[in-house]
Amino acid sequence: MTIGTYIVVSLVKIVIAMFILLTGVAYTTLAERKVVARIQNRWGPSRVGPFGIWQPLADGLKFIFKEDITPPFAYRPLYLLAPILSLTMALTSIAVIPIGPWVTIGSIHTPLQIADVNIGLLIILGLTSIGVYGIALAGWSSNSKYSMLGSLRATAQMVSYEIALGLSLIGVLIYAGSFSLRDIVNSQSGTFLGFIPKWNIFTGQFVAFFIYIMAAYAETNRIPFDLAEAETEIVAGYHTEYSSMKFAMFFMAEYANMFTVACLATVLFFGGWSGPVFGPPILQAVLPVLWFVLKVLAFIFIYIWVRGTLPRFRYDQLMAFGWKFLLPLAIANILVTALVVALK
Amino acid sequence: MHLVLFFIFGAVCVGAAINLLVQKHPINSALSLIVVMGSLALLYLLLGAEFVAAVQVIVYAGAVMVLFVFVIMLLNAGAEEVLPHKSRVAFLLGVPGLIVGLTIGVWVISHYAGLDRISLGGPQIMSGTESFGNPRAVAQLLFRDYLLPFEVTSILILIAILGAVVLARREE
Questions:
Q1: Which residues contact B171 (CB under 8 A, 6 or more apart)?
Q2: Model ipTM?
Q3: Any idea what the Cα angle at residue B134 is, between residues B133 and B135, rounded to 5°?
Q4: I need a labelling partner for A197 at 20 to 30 A (CA). Which of A48, A65, A334, B69 fits?
Q5: What is the pTM (predicted TM-score) of this model?
Q6: Distance between B14 CA and the closest CA of chain A, angstroms
């Protein structure tokens, strides 16, 4: 492939991925409102279009037309930078996620992934760790005590849980022997006894999966770890002073991060796009992507389910849970996995 | 291409480093330092050391600098007070002195090290078969060739952490 074709193909993939991701983000907000409403025995949005399916558009328009207020006491450059940083890092992470095998369209042979890099997992961790600044700076630059408290909580929480999150992935890395997300998916192909897939969750990374999913919930500041925006305590946390599209950017960043977490859980523990593939060639090309999307949507649903079910932790409980339970458990998991692989 | 990128990110790195010194507010300085770390990571990437680059971002730009920013936020450190006193002598002597010093430095480096013979590394290493910055190479260096220094360093860091805990603990 020449460099020109490569750039064009990459740009096309970026546009498609952004379109799908942003639509997914918009409709996740609707799904969340609907599902949480049903859990609480009410209907949720149902007026805009059939079953409320145009609600995200209405919300988007509302955000655009709301007055954009910059508090006079805010530190302007960082106040503007914070939401941009959050959203950029959240959207960029999707670039290294592989959603399917290589495909051939005409003369172009390309992976279903924007960038197939050999340190994909590290890139996601790096982007997440830079994304922390969005929240930290939002709280600091707003110059408001609620924002400040929210972002202090969020920063401490994200830094703490990042360690457990990173360590929980090492077991998977030991199995796959690579940082490349594509290699990790390929290492999970095949089945036991003909029907149990060789996904990492079934080959002994069960504990790691639970550490990962709990740490990831904390990383994305979602219930039960949403101390950073606890409405009952600190108004809205780090984005208290934000309005209009700037608030919407934080909102989109949160949901985009949910998608990254869901995609990563699928890739690392649930075999990515692997699943039964049959039928004519066109179906064979579409099915892997369909399995991937279904798995991701299942994780998004669990996110919403958890939000509708669980109460919020107390702050000291949150810290104790991260440092005294998840971290030792993650280290124990690494030791056991390393022993198993070494003795095999 | 590599050379162009090297000069762009090198300039960003130096610019951010200067900005770090000039800024009055600690949070701006801390953010400049993050930019320095980030552009250093990109320079590593240009040398073909993708693992080192990722670790540079995760550890330095991510973890270490978050703690810096956290402390600045927690202490709510304000803008640094600038002393009104400005020395005319320092200005008159310092600026020409700096220029002369830099000129001598550049001359010495270019004369003895031979600036025209210095290769910037990037393209040559990228095209070569030898790799030094991928996870496998780093792991073999750390866990085979330099295992003892690596373990000793980790014990040293552990001692430093324990020392910090002891120092920070409130007296009962």
A1: none
A2: 0.76
A3: 120
A4: A334
A5: 0.81
A6: 21
B138 and B67 both lie in a single domain: no
Domain enclosing residue B109, as ranges: 2-78+92-133
Is the Cβ pair A129, B74 closer than 8 Å? no
pLDDT in tens, A102-155: 777 777 777 777 877 888 888 888 888 888 888 888 888 888 888 888 888 888
A173 touches chain B (CB under 8 A): no
Copy the structure tokens of residue A99: 């959603």
Q: Which residue has the tokens 């409130």?
A: B170
Q: Are residues B70 and B154 in the same domain?
A: no
Tell me the chain B residues in contact with residue A137 when contact means C-beta distances shorter than 8 Å.
27, 69
What residue ranges in chain A does DSSP mark as E strands?
A: 100-105, 108-112, 191-192, 196-197
For residue B86, being part of any structural domain is answered with no
* Half-sphere exposure for A100 (CA within 13 Å, toward CB): 19
- If one counts the domains in chain B, the total is 2
Same domain, B145 and B72: no
- φ/ψ (deg, to 5) at A196: -85, 115
Q: What's chain B's length in residues?
A: 172
Inter-residue contact A111 to A182 (CB < 8 Å): yes
With tokens 């000039």, the residue in question is: B22
The DSSP bridge pattern shows strands A108-112 and A196-197 to be unpaired
Q: Please indicate whether, in this complex, the C-beta atoms of B50 and A117 are within 8 angstroms of each other.
A: yes
